[in-house]
Amino acid sequence: MPIMIEVENLSKTFILHTQGGIRLPVFDTLNLSVESGECLCLTGPSGAGKSTLLRSLYGNYAPSAGAIRVRQGKKMVAMDPDNPRVVMALRRKAIGYVSQFLRVIPRVSTIDIVTTPAIASGMEREVAIAKGQALLTSLNVSERLWSLAPATFSGGEQQRINVARGFLPGYPVLLLDEPTASLDAENRDRVVDLILRAKADGSAVVVIVHDTDVRDRIADRLFDVTRYSEAA
Amino acid sequence: MQQTTQADTPLLVCDALTKSYGRQVGCTEVGFDLWSGEVLGIVGESGSGKTTLLKCLAGTLEPTNGRILYQTRHQGTMDLYALGEAERRLLMRTDWALVHQNPRDGLRMGVSAGANVGERLMALGARNYGTIRGEAEHWLDSVEIDMGRIDHMPETFSGGMQQRLQIARNLVSKPRLVFMDEPTGGLDVSVQARLLDMIRALVADLGLACVIVTHDLAVARLLADRLMVMKNGRVVEHGLTDRVLDDPQHPYTQLLVSSVLQV
User: Fold this and answer.
1) Which chain A residues are closer than 8 Å to B254 by Cβ?
2) pLDDT, tens only, B69-93
3) Which of A139, B66, B132, B195 could form a disulfide with B17 if both were Cys (CB 3.0 to 4.6 A apart)?
């Protein structure tokens, strides 16, 4: 299977200039690659750098050294934080990220939040709305919530909206940070189904998930981030 | 969406731009490219040179050094300050828009809301009253101003409505590039949210390129794809908005980001 995302000698150290220039090394010379249809699960205790790695893969954090390459069609394209246009193009079509918590925008409705990235990726608006509604239904987000801004929704509802937003475009690479953390068993199963279907469709998935039951159902490989943090 | 033949050429190139007021420096050696459909945010504290830079970019303040290159619709790349005054004014009227922080600076307070929008079209040659009125109604509706207010004077509008009217006045000429100086500056938080949502949707739907100066990082996060952080007239950091805000590299950006109160 083709490699969808690869990481070469990636290092990340935070330098806190406002706090006396303290250096916080997170990981050092980290290497990984994920193939089409494969799910890689990041492991390690809190603070090991799992989320930092995931954010780096999305271009949200700037690597201190090393390279990240994401497949865009036939080419592997460098996720270069100094080249925002390249990162923006990758994010439109090639790579999606489901954060742990939904960032709520005032006045923007649930259905708009869910469909915006899909429309940006090139999906027709009507198609995006129809598919978004189906996705929200399968995730048990009540129809009366679709036209409302989710600021006042429960944590679980917000998480399912965030999941729908991330899965709707069908990105070839998916980064998921605790996608089932605030969900009940029924909705956890729905999200597991979505992940399995994305894999079957050929997406490469990198996921952080503490729930060992969920992990056993989705992961093909485990990747222990601590191995690299100790070197840092 | 829009397929331009110059898809690989930036719409605007700012090349080593410097503006000094005598010995006082406004901005120094600023450089960036802006493409169609992109929103660039410029952040920094008061006096960091944001507004000076915006005025130079928008063609209203001649830089001391450096160039601004603009990809025109039909005549290729133009050096903004190498153009004659009349040509530059025409370009600014047809292709660009400038939204001021204070709506009074961007509106004509002596004529009605509808006329504020319509006269921009007339300046571009529109003469049919019905067409002009129709366009004015369409734009007032787009910025959520009640049709019943079309013949009222801007003086009778609230601050938020005036700002929305100013945006309608600016967008009616279908610009390709919009400059905004603290567009939500003097407004209540609830009014800000409405205006931000509107700007966000309009910019996305119309595929505008946009340069937004703000000191509000939340506004920058919501609207801008890319962010430039300025301090003492220089750009100290430049990158993808969420990268700059979530993993700031420069000491000043770290200070700026860490100084914001979390709500």
Assistant:
1) 16-18
2) 999 888 889 999 999 888 888 888 8
3) B66
For the entire predicted model, the pTM comes to 0.92
| Nearest residue to B167 via CA among B188, B191, B148 | B191
Nearest chain A Cα to B257, which residue?
A18
Nearest CA-CA distance, residue B17 and chain A, Å: 20
Question: What does the DSSP assignment read for chain B?
Answer: ----TTTTS-SEEEEEEEEEETTEEEEEEEEEEE-TT-EEEEE--TTSSHHHHHHHHTTSS--SEEEEEEE-SSS-EEEGGGS-HHHHHHHHHHTEEEE-SSHHHHS-TTS-HHHHHHHHHHHTT---HHHHHHHHHHHHHHTT--GGGTTS-GGGS-HHHHHHHHHHHHHTT--SEEEEESTTTTS-HHHHHHHHHHHHHHHHHHT-EEEEE-S-HHHHHHH-SEEEEEETTEEEEEEEHHHHHHS--SHHHHHHHHTSPP-
Neighbour tally for B4: CB within 10 Å:
13
- Going by C-alpha positions, the residue among A143, A206, A210, A149 that lies closest to residue A173 is A206
Its ipTM equals: 0.94
| Token pair recorded at residue B213 | 């100066």
- Kindly determine whether residue A88 and residue B35, on different chains, have CB atoms separated by under 8 Å: no
- Structure-block tokens of residue B164: 């929305």
